[in-house]
Design goal:
Elements (H helix, E strand, L loop, with lengths): L2 E3 L23 E14 L5 E3 L13 H6 L4 E3 L18 H6 L3 H12 L20 H12 L3 E6 L13 H17 L11 E4 L13 H18 L4 E7 L7 H13 L5 E7 L8 H15 L6 E8 L9 H5 L1 H13 L7 E4 L18 H11 L5 E6 L6 E7 L5 E8 L46 E7 L7 E9 L6 E9 L3 E6 L4 E9 L1
Parallel strand pairs: 2-14, 3-4, 3-10, 4-5, 5-6, 6-7, 7-8, 8-9, 9-10
Antiparallel strand pairs: 1-16, 2-11, 11-12, 12-13, 13-18, 14-17, 15-16, 15-18
Helix pairs in contact: 5-6, 10-11
Length: about 525
């Protein structure tokens, strides 16, 4: 029989109830049921991020400890502002960089540091000669990622705000990338054996912020670079192209896939980005991923992975959006996305971004913003990787997932509750005209094919939940109950810690959106 033991009550007030008979659903609450005896696959990790743990600018904290707490397991080396960039050059008068870093003294420091960090600073140098390389700044970044316990996902290209210059000789460029792989994987030039497996070619070539040459030049450069990396190790995973507007076709999606298929170019993964700037819908990613999976399969790339290498609620890094990016709205949105991705065709995902720079998860003292706690909660689910059968959640806002540890001594349930704000009025993110490359027309983004918003979103019974977990694996044995809650006023706070026994667990509690809660049941 299920019993509550008041002597073990820690929380001052609880909304839980303990009983042996079913409880009628509270008004506006959702019935969620978990069968702890029925594994339904394995919980996948989507704890990847952009933003390295070592500081990319003066005044930012070292976040190795925090990244471990968030269970971050793969880190994309994009927008490191110099380190890991092969040929990027920065200048104080670059309008795009000035838009990102409007404070002049800070920008001057970033430019100086970034230009001192380029891996291959002189394109007249010999790529076969170790002396031609400036590895030290990038070594520090890569080893910081490894110190955080994460894998390196190496982005080949340039950071935001680098000068618009055409690429050097493509054969030399491919040779340089080859020797970077040799340095980090095979110890070349007093290097390392870091097992950097993923090599992503470029970032958002469908925007003039990162690519100003033709698609045909892009295809040829990718082909040479992919073959150069495969010559180092055929098992390296090589792909492209971190497309900014994934739902739109065009030369950097459909054209690239056609070229790779026709010319037998290695494509181990296709990478893409999405920000829900106009929809604020956490299920967007699943919908786009389904279309991309079908497109890859149609071109014969059945084994190619689909990698969402940037995602967030909005890409807007400007001050008016900071409350959304750092607050509970984004935290609950992220919880939904990370749960929904479990049932998507996405293989790897990288949130943008996790450090203490723009759009980051931490302040300059390393303290957590609310979205950081979402990654803490979702990361803890990996401790119970045997996914359990769950009913009662939906794909419009009330997301839930349950897992069991391999030793069957723990069961966890994560519930994320989010609603698209009724007052949502997307604010246009207007790029300063001076930031566009000279002699190039400003793109008409209104002509891009965009994901149509869902018309069937309807919220009901999402003011809280009534959870029943049946067939606990320890039978009638004792177990602890812990509940951690993330709301507008609570930062993943422990709101319940009790001891119980029995083969099932039942609770009803209010949890209006936006909010997130982790329930941990642990055998004693």
């Amino acid at each position: 029989m299920f019993r509550c033991t008041p002597a073990f009550l820690i929380a001052a007030s609880l909304s839980a109830f303990c009983q042996t008979t079913p409880h009628p659903t509270s008004a506006g609450f959702r019935d969620i049921r978990v069968d702890a005896s029925k594994p339904a696959g394995t919980i996948r990790s989507f704890q990847g991020v952009n933003g390295v743990p070592t500081p990319i600018m003066d005044g930012l904290p070292n976040l190795v400890r925090q990244y471990k707490d968030l269970h971050i397991d793969t880190i994309r080396t994009h927008d490191t502002m110099g380190p890991t960039d092969i040929d990027a050059r920065f200048s104080n008068d670059n309008a795009l960089l000035a838009w990102l870093l409007p404070e002049a003294e800070q920008r001057i420091r970033v430019v100086k540091a970034g230009n001192a960090a380029a891996i291959f600073p002189d394109w007249k140098a010999d790529p076969e000669n170790p002396a031609s390389y400036n590895f030290a700044p990038t070594d520090k970044v890569i080893q910081g990622i490894r110190a955080a316990g994460a894998q390196v996902y190496y982005r080949v290209g340039r950071s935001w705000g680098a000068d618009y210059t055409s690429l050097p000789n493509p054969d030399k460029f491919a040779s340089v990338v080859k020797h970077i792989a040799l340095h980090y994987n095979q110890g070349w030039a007093q290097g390392f054996h870091d097992q950097v497996r993923y090599w992503e070619f470029w970032n958002e070539p469908d925007t003039p912020f990162f690519w100003t040459d033709t698609p045909e030049i892009f295809y040829a450069l990718y082909e040479k670079t992919a073959h150069a990396l495969k010559s180092v190790d055929p098992s390296l995973q090589v792909g492209a192209d971190a497309k900014a507007f994934a739902y739109d076709g065009g030369p950097f999606r459909d054209g690239l896939l056609e070229y790779c298929a026709q010319h037998h170019v290695p494509l181990d993964f296709y990478s893409w980005h999405h920000y829900t700037m106009t929809s604020a819908d956490p299920y967007d990613f699943n919908r786009i991923a389904a279309e991309l999976r079908a497109l890859l399969d149609a071109q014969g790339f059945h084994s190619a992975q689909s990698i969402l290498s940037e995602w967030n609620l909005t890409p807007d890094f400007t001050d008016p959006e900071r409350p959304r990016l750092q607050g509970i709205e984004n935290a609950a949105f992220m919880g939904d996305v990370l749960i929904y991705l479990e049932d998507s065709s996405v293989d790897i995902a990288h949130f943008y971004r996790a450090d203490a720079a723009w759009m980051g998860l931490f302040d300059r003292h390393g303290e957590y913003f609310k979205p950081a706690y979402t990654l803490v909660a979702v990361g803890k689910m990996l401790d119970t990787p045997e996914r359990l059968t769950l009913s009662g959640a939906d794909t419009v806002g009330l997301a839930a997932i349950a897992g069991r540890s391999r030793d069957q001594n723990s069961v966890q349930i994560l519930i994320s509750n989010y609603e698209i704000p009724a007052s949502l009025h997307p604010r246009p993110m207007t790029v300063p005209r001076a930031a566009w490359p000279k002699n190039m027309p400003v793109p008409d983004f209104s002509k891009l094919k965009s994901l149509p918003p869902r018309q069937d979103i309807h919220y009901e019974n999402n003011r809280g939940y009534h959870l029943l977990v049946e067939n606990l694996p320890w039978g009638e044995g004792a177990f602890t109950i812990e509940r951690y809650r993330l709301t507008a006023t609570e930062d993943f706070r422990l709101v319940q810690h009790t001891l119980a026994s029995g083969h099932h667990f039942e609770i009803a509690t209010s949890l209006p959106p936006p909010a997130l809660e982790l329930i941990v049941l642990r055998h004693q």
